[in-house]
């Protein structure tokens, strides 16, 4: 390629730009890059923001914990890596009041705790809570209200922690990092780490948990985790945001998946936009190509000229798109600033790369086949205008483009299954429906032969070139499909979240209710207007053996199993299975229970972690007695819904002689909180656990994510509309020409308007049918293989989408072809010929 | 025939469709001398434009051969033929074939730029001046009348100083008066530049201005009239 070709190509390009020939192509490209960049930017920041929000539940970005003091090297390295850190020591200790004693969980924290989230306290029991940005000063403790109730303490009283005597200076209502552990039975005490030595509680051999909370920049954290993992010993654990908290985790996962899918929709839109406008670019340059060949330019030179032009356009449009995408995501962030996490991470570079790659892959993949066609224009076309080059067989290039875009989608979603579901679902649907559209058009050709003139004129365009029409239907269909898939997924996502935490989600847990008080307690709950889950008997027990092998030998470190065997499990028995549990293997209790053995039902996650299957025999130590039980079934448990759930459920009667207390959760409106004081007094042995704060925090996060999801959806829809109009533009040339021709033959404006409307409505409804069929196929694949949701047909959309398609494209098409009835036919004909 | 710039021997062009085989040109042989002007005349469908396209190397014959500027076109591939055209050939078309997105000046500059000539702008401006459009350099084709557009096309055709100019019905889209002006211009420039002019026309008066005429009838060449 010589310099002459470069400068000729750019000069020609500049002249065409001035003449306004290139606007549609450049607009389409800019939209393609803009949409993928903006969504990529926004989702990237949002996802990182949501992760940081989720970090509140850990009190840090990551936590190292151990039963022994952590090696100095861990802290040293964290400081070198510039990470913020706080030491925490946790232990159980008996607290004594004047009359009662109570086992409590004490947390001694260093300055700076918590690294993420905030501690909230109240000045008196069940008083108004406030945020504190400090830890208890030395010599003071903050205690949970229920401990105060049990020990009859008020603020200002003194509490002995081990050997130290401390002043109770506030009621502890919320600490961010206890959220994941609200089944813990013991009330909590927060103290200053500086006082720990004075308590003399921590002695060699005492059960203490040392935790190092860490926080810092993403890269530094990642580097630190990579450094740390290989060095962790069996008794040391690393917990990151991703490992923690099931309620938040699943919501965030789904949101991330949605945002990823929204990005895919944007990529599809980009591809369609580029393919259509490049095809228009090529068609409009057949004459130029023929003339250049006629004037003596070689085929290679002509191709080079157009390739250089397209590359220049691609580059310019990509740069503009990237810049606009960057500006747009700032707009998004500004608009949503009240709802986004306050410490939203900054802009990363990755979205720029992704946006740029989208533009260039879309350009190379979808613009090359039409361009190759441009290179095949015969010079003879200067004499015979009807000589159009044969459509190039661009299968290889389209295949490569699809592959490239799939890689991009994979990058967006980070999930191969989702990507494959969308790519294969979309490709199969597009192929089948393209064929169906073509066949339908061929068939309706005969039917419409005797229809009215407007119908014949309107359908004529589509029927005359069924392949081209099928291509247009496919393009519009893909645009609508992208929008419909995003719409369906968003609705599903919000429903799932809504179901997860309905209005009456329990916001309190009541533990340690004596079996003798059951009736009285139930009545008391009813009296204060609380909505209660069933009461479950609970007896603490430790799992010791599986099929006569010590369980310690069977579990791996950092696993759920390890956590389960390292502490007492809350064991229960029940005749029926909770409605939100699902049986995965085995069967529920038989009608007649065996007298000589105990049966158990085990939660699936724990069963996996322990390698337990139906038929295995598990040994427990309960109140000093060993009890063997056979696994009869494995259950899946919904941990998200704040009702009592159990890893192990025994068959009724198995634990008959074991000491047990009752446990339940209930929902009580916030304004009735004062009633809890009476409840606590009426049942002094009972432990009351408030999860209102946790619930509110989860609700807040879901509300934020919901809004972000809505916003991204609106953004995709707007992008869809824009691409739709740009796409429509690319199909107008021939229609304007023929319309003008009809006017010269005496066709009235009304007839032309009607014919245009009919044509585009027909195009729109066919595209709508295609879109909904493809969307259903894709969502089915997604639900079935990637999202694990139940799928059912969206009947309403079967009507709505084709109708919307018809109206939308009908109106847009009518607007686009207004020139037919407005401008002078002669001008249109001159322009068209 | 040593001073012939175009020689055709036993040219035939046959088009096969599903229904039938159509012979557009049938065993045409001719020779056109350097710096002469030749009209190819005949009724519509007699094969005039096809003959022109074969002589100019825009299309290939079914049988027979064409020698253009001393080269056998059948021996050349498409790109070599393009190169030959770039060096020796200019065109004027019935439908002008100007590029809408380029101004009059830029349209004329195009072949010069393809040749990589640095004086493209000046030479194009001079030529437009010569065809009487000195004041319309920056106008787009749609802002010009048919006659003006054809003048731009003529200026473009002569821009690269071709040895041979092929004109396909150059006045076909123009009224009589304008057509007359265009014809005068074409012949004047032809004379000035010593170009060989091959013109397809069914305008008898235009044909008469050429030194010789080749009469086509149903694809066959009748005896030369002059």
Automatic annotation (TrEMBL), chain A:
Membrane-topology annotation of the record: Multi-pass membrane protein
Keyword Cell membrane: yes
Source domain of life: Bacteria
Name this protein carries in UniProt: Permease
Keywords: Cell membrane, Membrane, Transmembrane, Transmembrane helix
The species this protein was found in: Halopseudomonas salina
Location of the ABC3 transporter permease C-terminal domain: 261-375, 712-825
Transmembrane segments: 21-42, 258-281, 302-332, 352-372, 393-412, 418-441, 462-489, 708-728, 758-783, 795-821
Matching Pfam families: FtsX
Cellular localisation: Cell membrane
InterPro entries: ABC3_permease_C, Membrane_comp_ABC_pdt
Automatic annotation (TrEMBL), chain B:
InterPro entries (UniProt xref): AAA+_ATPase, ABC_transporter-like_ATP-bd, ABC_transporter-like_CS, MacB-like_ATP-bd, P-loop_NTPase
A GO molecular-function annotation: ATP binding
Keyword Transport: yes
CDD domains, per the entry: ABC_MJ0796_LolCDE_FtsE
Sorted UniProt keywords: ATP-binding, Nucleotide-binding, Transport
Domain ABC transporter, residue spans: 9-226
Family membership: Belongs to the ABC transporter superfamily.
Protein name per Swiss-Prot or TrEMBL: ABC transporter ATP-binding protein
């Amino acid at each position: 390629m010589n310099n002459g070709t470069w400068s000729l190509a750019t000069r020609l390009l500049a002249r065409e730009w001035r003449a306004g020939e290139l606007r549609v192509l450049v607009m389409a490209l800019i939209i393609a890059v803009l949409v993928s960049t903006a969504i990529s930017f926004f989702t990237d920041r949002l996802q990182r923001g949501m992760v940081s929000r989720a970090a509140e539940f850990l009190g840090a970005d990551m936590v190292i914990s151990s039963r022994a003091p952590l090696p100095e090297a861990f802290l040293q390295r964290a400081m070198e890596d510039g990470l913020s850190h706080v030491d925490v020591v946790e232990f159980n200790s008996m607290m004594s009041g004047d009359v009662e004693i109570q086992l409590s969980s004490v947390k001694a924290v260093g300055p700076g705790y918590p690294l993420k989230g905030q501690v909230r306290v109240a000045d008196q029991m069940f008083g108004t809570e406030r945020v504190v940005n400090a830890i208890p000063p030395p010599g003071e403790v903050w205690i949970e209200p229920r401990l105060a109730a049990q020990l009859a303490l008020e603020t200002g009283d003194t509490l002995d922690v081990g050997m130290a005597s401390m002043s109770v200076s506030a009621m502890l209502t919320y600490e961010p990092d206890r959220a994941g552990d609200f089944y813990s039975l013991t009330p909590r005490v927060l103290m200053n780490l500086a006082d720990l030595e004075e308590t003399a509680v921590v002695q060699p051999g005492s059960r203490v948990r040392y935790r190092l909370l860490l926080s810092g920049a993403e890269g530094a954290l990642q580097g630190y985790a990579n450094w740390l993992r290989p060095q962790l010993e069996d008794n040391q654990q690393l917990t990151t945001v991703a490992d923690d908290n099931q309620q938040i985790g699943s919501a965030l996962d789904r949101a991330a998946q949605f945002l990823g899918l929204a990005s895919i929709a944007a990529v599809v839109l980009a591809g369609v936009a580029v393919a259509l406008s490049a095809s228009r670019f090529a068609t409009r340059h057949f004459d130029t190509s023929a003339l250049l060949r006629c004037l003596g330019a070689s085929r290679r030179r002509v191709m080079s000229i157009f390739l250089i032009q397209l590359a220049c356009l691609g580059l310019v449009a990509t740069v503009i798109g990237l810049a606009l995408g960057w500006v747009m995501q700032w707009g998004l962030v500004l608009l949503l600033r009240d709802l986004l996490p306050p410490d939203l991470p900054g802009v990363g570079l990755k979205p720029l790369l992704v946006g740029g790659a989208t533009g260039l892959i879309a350009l190379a993949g979808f613009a090359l086949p039409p361009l190759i066609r441009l290179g095949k224009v015969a010079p003879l076309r200067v004499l015979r205008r009807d000589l159009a080059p044969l459509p190039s067989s661009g299968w290889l290039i389209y295949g490569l483009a699809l592959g490239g875009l799939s890689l991009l989608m994979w990058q967006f979603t980070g999930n191969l299954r989702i990507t494959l579901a969308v790519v294969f679902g979309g490709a199969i649907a597009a192929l089948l429906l393209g064929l169906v559209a073509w066949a339908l058009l061929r068939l309706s050709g005969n039917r419409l032969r005797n229809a009215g003139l407007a119908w014949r004129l309107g359908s004529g365009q589509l029927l005359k070139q069924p392949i081209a029409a099928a291509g247009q239907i496919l393009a519009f269909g893909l645009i609508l499909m992208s929008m419909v898939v995003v719409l369906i997924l968003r609705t599903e996502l919000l429903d799932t979240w809504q179901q997860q935490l309905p209005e009456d989600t329990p916001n309190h847990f009541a533990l340690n209710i004596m079996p003798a008080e059951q009736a009285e307690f139930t009545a008391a709950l009813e009296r204060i207007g609380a909505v209660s889950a069933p009461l479950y008997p609970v007896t603490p027990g430790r799992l010791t053996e599986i099929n006569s092998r010590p369980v310690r030998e069977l579990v791996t470190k950092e696993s759920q199993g390890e956590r389960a065997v390292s502490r007492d499990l809350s064991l229960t028995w029940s005749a029926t299975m909770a409605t939100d549990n699902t049986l995965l293997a085995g069967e529920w209790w038989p009608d007649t229970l065996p007298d000589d053995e105990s049966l158990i039902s085990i939660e699936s996650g724990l069963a996996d972690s322990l390698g337990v299957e139906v038929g295995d025999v598990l040994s427990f130590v309960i109140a000093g007695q060993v009890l063997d039980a056979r696994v009869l079934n494995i259950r899946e448990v919904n941990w998200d819904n704040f009702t009592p759930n159990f890893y192990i459920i025994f068959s009724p009667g198995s634990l008959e002689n074991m000491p047990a207390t009752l446990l339940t959760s209930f929902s009580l409106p916030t304004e009735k909180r004062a009633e809890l004081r009476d409840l606590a007094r009426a049942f002094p042995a009972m432990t009351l656990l408030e999860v209102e704060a946790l619930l509110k925090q989860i609700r807040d996060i879901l509300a934020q994510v919901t809004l972000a999801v809505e916003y991204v959806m609106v953004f995709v829809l707007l992008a869809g509309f824009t691409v739709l109009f740009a796409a429509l533009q690319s199909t107008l040339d021939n229609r304007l020409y023929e319309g003008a021709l009809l006017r010269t033959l005496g066709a009235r404006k009304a007839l032309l308007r009607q014919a245009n409307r009919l044509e585009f409505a027909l195009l729109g409804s066919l595209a709508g049918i295609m879109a909904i069929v493809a969307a259903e196929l894709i969502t089915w694949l997604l639900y079935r293989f990637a999202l694990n949701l139940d799928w059912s047909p969206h009947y309403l959309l079967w009507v709505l989408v084709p109708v919307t398609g018809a109206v939308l494209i009908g109106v847009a098409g009518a607007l686009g072809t207004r020139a037919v009835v407005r401008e002078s036919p002669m001008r249109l004909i001159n322009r068209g010929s | 025939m040593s001073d012939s710039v175009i020689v055709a021997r036993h040219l035939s062009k046959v088009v096969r469709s599903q229904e039938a085989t159509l012979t557009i040109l049938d065993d045409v042989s001719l020779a056109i001398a350097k710096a002469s002007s030749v009209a190819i005349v005949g009724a519509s469908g007699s094969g005039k434009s096809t003959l022109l396209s074969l002589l100019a190397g825009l299309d290939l014959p079914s049988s027979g051969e064409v020698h253009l500027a001393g080269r056998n076109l059948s021996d050349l591939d498409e790109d070599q033929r393009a190169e030959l055209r770039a060096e020796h050939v200019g065109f004027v078309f019935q439908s002008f074939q100007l590029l809408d997105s380029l101004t009059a000046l830029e349209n004329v500059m195009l072949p010069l730029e393809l040749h990589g000539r640095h004086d493209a702008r000046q030479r194009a401006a001079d030529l437009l001046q010569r065809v009487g459009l000195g004041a319309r350099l920056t106008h787009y084709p749609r802002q010009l009348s048919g006659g003006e557009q054809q003048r731009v096309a003529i200026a473009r055709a002569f821009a690269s100083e071709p040895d041979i100019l092929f004109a396909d019905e150059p006045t076909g889209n123009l009224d009589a008066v304008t057509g007359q002006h265009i014809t005068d211009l074409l012949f004047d420039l032809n004379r000035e530049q010593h170009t060989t002019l091959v013109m397809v026309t069914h305008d008898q008066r235009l044909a008469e201005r050429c030194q010789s005429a080749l009469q086509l009838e149903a694809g066959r060449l009748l005896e030369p009239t002059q």
